[in-house]
Amino acid sequence: MWTQVIDPFSNIGLSALVALIPILFIFWALIIRKMKGYLASLLAVLVALTIAVFIYKMPIKLALLSTSNGILYGLFPICWIIISAVFLFNLTVKSGQFEIIRHFMATITSDRRIQALLIAFSFGSFLEGTAGFGAPVAITAAMLVGLGFNPLYAAGICLIANTAPVAFGSIGIPITVASQVSGIPEMAISQMIGRTLPLLSAFLPLYIVVLMSGFKKTVEVLPAVLVSGFSFALLQWFTSNDLGPALPDIIAGIGSIICLVVLLRFWKPKSTWRFPNEPVPVIIEGNTYSAGEIIRAWSPFILLTILVIAWGLQPVKQFFNSAGLLQFEMPGLHNMIADKNHQLLPHIFRFNYLSAAGTSIFLAALIAIPLVGLTAKEGIKIFRDTLGQLKFSILTVVSVLGFAYCLNDSGITLTLAAALANTGFLFPFFAPMLGWLGVFITGSDTSANALFGKLQSATASSIGVDPVITVAANASGGVVGKMISPQSIAVAAAAGNLVGKESDLFRFTVKHSFIMLTFICLIVLAQAYLFIGIIPQYQMLATGVKTLQPDTLTGPAYLLALGLLLASFFVLIKLITRKK
After folding, report:
1. 3 state DSSP class of 312
2. pTM for the whole thing?
3. Tens digit of pLDDT for each residue in 172-227?
4. Which residues pair with 349 in a beta bridge?
5. 3-state SS class at 33
6. Residue 100 CB: number of other CB atoms within 10 A?
7. Which end of the chain has fewer beta carbons closer than 10 Å to its terminal beta carbon, N or C?
8. What is the C-alpha to C-alpha distance for residues 564 and 561, in angstroms, rounded to an integer?
9. Across-strand partners of 326?
10. Minimal CA–CA distance to 131: which of 258, 253, 1?
11. 337-338 and 326-329: which strand pairing?
């Protein structure tokens, strides 16, 4: 057994500087040296192992086992999601159905600015709320590239757009975890985040379109930008404050799509904007495809949506886990590392092959094969080609997760957290940075909340600040770390055909991450000392009591919502067919 060392130099400032080296190496490798993603990640693992073993005195065996545990987690569930998502997209392309989707999107709008709002921002938020874990960026980036977007802009825009929904992703799992580790009720954390992130969400579409086309061209589509951002922000605020953490992304994502499509029925931009040097689109005189053909083309993504929602239902998850869950203690690692309080750290690998989000996406792809007109043999070939396409992305992801696990188990991450916790009165300003750091390292807001939620709560209480502010700030700050997390960069690069150009993508997003992080830090500081009236009233949970989901989010409500969705879908098909 080995006990983590948080301050190896008995000087937290000096220890923090050394702990920063692995993170600074990633920045140097991708920004300065412009290394390929997989090479930068592999070298970062070596740097992390060196510091863990020689500075933190972590036994070599434990350091290697910890890294291996991260690699295993990278393969499943993360790479399983990426492979399934890209496979589904490739099916639509190889079958020729994506040409129909491209044509259909052009009949709604051929303007790249509005397409980015519909797909990257609104649809991506919906996917984040249901699946999370890389699926939104993988799907939306692939779709934008398929529509003809510049690959770098497609991937970069999807990463930036994915910030707004991350805190409420995967049916609110990040907030559930934050509640469990901090003792603050889920509803209170949801409300606090819901009084922070909508300020970012409202202006994120404006930010994205300015980034794409410049301010003057953004003014041309200002109605669309305002409708997209403010409808999303309003619904995110309402659901997070009144319904809880599970539905904000789903309702806000769908709501903003509906509002924008309704607007486009009555308003169009005066000119159609496309990327420089992009071919002039063919002018479409009416829709030459039948409703049935359009629905068939969209069927893989319709199936994806329905199945991902179903997989998010708690009763469905419980059933699948009871029927198909393998879990085991990591040999030689489980309970072999103790934290500074001498609590043993469990290392249990869960292979939930039935309930995993990647399985729902893969099943949608399998069902879609005959629907899009492909044979089983062609589907197998496309899947094999997808694996070949993603080989370097898989190597990057598993390396990044190995890097993250090594930093966490060795105590390197906790050193940085302890340094930020020593900032006293200014801690609320730095609280989002902890979440940002956690997501940058782990690629997950859920993991960042598990890592730093308790520290955020305890530090806030020690300086007289309501702990719900800093616990919520951990999740809010984490969302803007997602766009530059090496794991997210690898996913976006794989989906956007940018494998080997991860450094370009990292440099594209990094400054925007810091700009948004500063914005959130200032908001949290103001909440702590100036606008304390917005802090929700709550009572701490009793020790050992698990947070309960709000009544509106119980299993029967989920099943009813799914039934209504399926009924609405079939009614829509009947109406379109009859009209045709």
Report:
1. helix
2. 0.77
3. 778 877 887 778 888 899 999 999 999 999 999 999 999 998 999 999 999 999 99
4. 328
5. coil
6. 20
7. C
8. 5
9. 351
10. 253
11. unpaired
